[in-house]
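Example (one chain per record):
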Amino acid sequence: MNEQNRKKKQWANYYDSIGILDEIMDEPVDLSLDDHLRRDIMSGKRKRKLKNVTIKIDPLQIIAIKKLATMKSMPYQTLIRHWLAEEIKKELAMLMR
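Predicted structure:
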């Protein structure tokens, strides 16, 4: 086994043992939406047209996300979209209080 593969395996074992979710920090985001858009998002009435975005994510987190998605029997990008949608709804619900 070459050095690079050995290091990847060590990192994978590390994240398997501690759980990747413990490594992710949530930071509050100040979000301001108009009332109409907020109601549409909360009710799920928005059109399902998807738009591509590019973000940089730690490769080990991607591995963990893919592993979680496999355990849930769903594509990893769908899982990420689901997590984002749920967190957006939570944040909007808190702002509407």
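Caption: Helices lie at 3-18, 35-43, 59-71, 76-95.
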